[in-house]
Write a structure and sequence with these properties.
Layout (H helix, E strand, L loop, with lengths): L1 E7 L4 H12 L5 E8 L4 H8 L4 E3 L6 H8 L6 E4 L8 H6 L4 E5 L14 H9 L4 E8 L9 E8 L6 H24 L2
Parallel strand pairs: 1-2, 1-4, 2-3, 4-5
Antiparallel strand pairs: 5-6, 6-7
The chain binds 5-O-phosphono-beta-D-ribofuranosylamine.
Protein name: Phosphoribosylglycinamide formyltransferase
Organism: Chryseobacterium angstadtii
Pfam family, one: Formyl_trans_N
Length: 187
């Protein structure tokens, strides 16, 4: 059984998807042992509803070291599922190859500092991109720079707005996140 720790900052629909796909067997041989939030958010409530151990570590300069103290040593995978703090390089290096993130665009496009949430979708539409999508990638000290694990795109049409792009990206995320987790876990 592989142990997964999930980090959240927001509504946690990707967290929910991971919980549900573990329950349904789409993600095999894994359990969520801990959910960590860096702020009050609905993701934390989802963990509580599912009786998953959870903790709030307020965001700020000590976040990464406090996180390092609470993550169980036998953790196989740390999953950033809508998580907004930047993890310190030292933390990333301690867990090399064991931290993954989902990003709401086709990296390396529309990644890096400030590229989160609606900023991403606004930029995609403003640039007149013909496609967008989602990327699951390894987390390294460089923001959104780690190797891609899985990526899927869709066509952006003239009718699309940042809001419709956001909705389509979310659907793609729900599809590729469980697949990427299986891949990293060697399932
Ligand atoms: C997702 O779009 C993810 O790509 C980004 O933050 C969003 C989180 O959504 N990193 P949710 O909290 O899982 O609903």
């Amino acid at each position: 059984m592989k142990n997964i720790v999930i980090l959240v900052s927001g509504s946690g629909t990707n967290l929910q998807r991971i919980i549900d796909t573990i329950d349904s067997g789409e993600i095999q041989n894994a359990k969520v042992t801990l959910v960590v939030a860096d702020r009050e958010c609905y993701g934390l409530e989802r963990a509580k509803k599912h009786h998953i151990e959870n903790i709030l570590i307020p965001r700020g300069k000590n976040f990464s070291s406090e996180l390092g103290n609470v993550i169980p040593k036998d953790t196989d995978l740390i999953v950033l599922a809508g998580f907004l703090s930047i993890l310190k390089p030292e933390f990333c290096e301690n867990w090399t190859g064991k931290i993954i993130n989902i990003h709401p665009a086709l990296l390396p496009k529309f990644g890096g500092k400030g590229m989160w949430g609606m900023n991403v979708h606004n930029a995609v539409v403003e640039a007149g991109e013909k496609e967008s999508g989602a990327t699951v990638h390894f987390v390294t000290p460089g923001i959104d720079e780690g190797e891609a694990i899985l990526q899927k795109s869709f066509e952006v049409t003239a009718e699309d707005t940042p809001e419709t792009v956001a909705e389509k990206v979310h659907q793609i995320e729900y599809e590729i996140f469980p697949k990427a987790i299986n891949k990293v876990l060697g399932n």
